[in-house]
Amino acid sequence: MSHFDESDQLNDLVKLSFFSGIGKAISSARTIRETLEAVMDQVGTIFAPSYWSLLLRNPKTGDLTFSIAVGSGVEQLKGMVIPKGQGIVGWIAEHGEALIIEDVSRDPRFSPDIDKLTRLQTKSIIGVPLKNNGKVFGVIELINKLDGGAFSPLELSLLSTIADFAAIAIEKAYYLKALKRIAVIDPLTGLNNRRSFISYFEKESDRSRRTGRNFSIMMVDLDGFKKINDQFGHSEGDKVLIRVADLFRKHLRTADFACRYGGDEFAVLMPETNKMEAENLKKRVLEQLERENESSPVKIGLSIGIHESSGENLTEVMHMADTLMYREKNRKIEQSVDDLAEHLAELSEAE
User: pTM of this prediction?
Assistant: First the structure.
């Protein structure tokens, strides 16, 4: 057997070892971060570079951000932004092509800015783009070999294969994340949906029974939503629902859990909050809504019922909050009828 045959067999074994490792990483990773770290761990094992990094590309600006940087002295690079088109990685991202540079001092595309920051000396580079449907979303870059030699075309070819596997793994993790989001987020308003609210309620209810600290539920219903749809159209009705969601996002507390409970109903769970505190929060939300209504052609009214819970079951708590909410809605209807009767009486006397 010739030296070249042995070399080919060794390369095949290395490839098979990598494919096995990256396959396990893909199947076990559940998040994009886990996937990226698993891929970069394999890169370090196969190539033994002095330091290596994975940069993600901003689709709007084209800038690249160091997501992962491995190696002595490069920890500070994480989060650093490389402007669009700058340096070797910028060129790779813009052209979507793999690149090998045996001596960066002889390549005009090389930018020494990173070396100045890290006080390292870059000699050779290989870098490959991460692509999805032809669009570059990142770059894997390897700097200097530990043995002092230059990277080879064979290593560039292998790294390109790694990038293909990485792109598949990242795409898989992205879709898993998207599916999880779809399962818990209302697509119109961007708030949590009823399913996620029920899950959160059960956890909070258990915690309340365990600690003895009550929480409050706020049930919210849009006043006259059917009339808004009939008068202005369903597209405007959708905008109204989004306005309510934005109102909650801006003026509820960070710990409060808001959801679109269904149709024109919303629910808010306020951890470790008694009824008086919840009433103050309700007042703040309604005051802000009143200010927003002044500049909006479509006026929004909200009926809100609040119930303080010490850990009762979901059906009981939601029934109590719902009852109080509809009691407020009926009070508003009765008030409007009274106002109309009074107004008509005034007109009659004037005549």
Answer: 0.57
